[in-house]
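User: Sorry, folds how?
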Amino acid sequence: MKKILLFSLILITISKFSYAHYFSESYSNWIISDNKVSATFTILKLEATRVLQIDKFQEIGQEKQLSEGEVFLEYFKPRISVLESSKECLLDKVPSLINGKDEYHTIELSYLCESTNSIKIINNVLFDIAQSHVHLSRISINDQILEKALFYNDQTIFINDLKTNKEKSFVDSLTNFISTGMNHILTGFDHLIFLMGLIILVNNFKHLLIVITGFTLGHSFTLALVALNIVVPNTLMIEALIGFTILFIAAEYMMKDEKNFFPIIAILLSILTFAAISSLFLQISITLISFIALILITIGYFGILRNLENKGSFRMIITSLFGVIHGFGFGTFLFNSEFDQTNIISALFGFNLGVEIGQIIFLMIFILLNLSLIKLLKSKNHQYLMQTLMIIVSSLGFYWFIQRLYF
C-alpha cells in the first residue's frame, strides 16, 4: 500500500516535468523554384499542444475560440522567415492549415523573393519551448534534394552551404546520421527511462546483456521496416505503447516480492481493462482488439515468468517485442524526414549505430553511477533508492500511457 501511495504522489508531482522533457520533433519540405519558396510544415498534434502551456496562447485560443490547430498556427506564423541576401522575402501565401495525416497538423506557406541566389531559411518553431526539439528539413532546388536537421543551437538553413556540402562522401553522410541517431536517443526521455528500468530490473550483468540484445534486435528490425516505407505505423498508438512498456517492466520489478504479485498485476490489468472499455466510447489510438491482446500478453507473460527459475532468456522475448515497439518510434523519425533515398544505407546503418552508441553511453553512465552508490550506501538503503527510482519509472510510464491515449 505504501508503494501505491508513493506511486500516486510522484505521478502528480512529475507529470508536468515529464511532459516538458518529452522528445519533440517536426518536419518541413521546401521547394525553391524561380523566385518562389514554398513549404509544408508537419508536426504531431500531440507535440503542437505544447503551445497551450504558454499563457498568451491559452488566452488567444479562449478569446478567439480557436481550435488547438489554429492556436498553434498563431504561434507558428512569426517564427518562420525566409531571407535572400539578408533581405526578408515577401509572404506570398499566408501560413494555413491543410488536410494531411490524421494525427498531424500540416501547414502550407510560400514566399516571393527578388532572386534565389542566396536563400536563408530561419525556423524558430518550438525551440523556445523544448530545447530537445529536432526539426528535419528537406529542400528541393534545381533537381537537387538537400537535407538538414535543425537543433536548439542551430535553427538556420543556408541553401548555398547545403549545395556545397551535397557531394559529400559516404563516410560524411554516415557520420551525420550517427550524430542524428545519438541525439535522438539521448534526448528521447521515454526511451532512456525504459532502459533505466531494465537496468534496475535485471541486476545480473549476463542477463542484462541478453535483454538489451533482444531490445536491440527488435528496434533494429522495425526501424528498417518503417524507414523503407514497408510499414507505416500509427504514431499516436506507438507513443502510447512506449509508455505501457515502461509501466510493464516497472510492474515486473514490483512483483519480485511474492506478496506483491497479485495486487500489482491486478492494478496493471485494471488499467488495461479501463482503457479497453473506454475505447468503445472514445476515439483513442489503440483499438479494443489491441487492448485484448495486451491483456492476454500480460497474463501469459507473468503467469509463465512466475514459475521459471531461469528468467533471463524468457525476458529476451518480451524485450524483443518491446524493441519492436520502440523501433517504430525510431523509424518514424527517419520516415517523416523523407531522407534522400540515395543515402538509404548510410541513413539506416548510421542512424541505428547512433542509437546504439547513445544507448551504450547512457547504460555505462547509469551502471557506473549505480556501482558507486552500492559502495557508498548500505545494502538496505541502496535497495530503497532503487525501489524509489522504479516507482518514478512506473509513474512516468503510467502518465505517458494515459496522456498519449486521451490527450
Observations:
- The longest strand covers residues 25-33.
- Residues 344-376 form the longest helix (33 residues).
- The beta strands are 25-33, 36-44, 80-84, 87-88, 90-98, 104-112, 119-123, 134-141, 144-150, 156-158.
- Residues 59 and 148 are 34 Å apart (CA to CA).
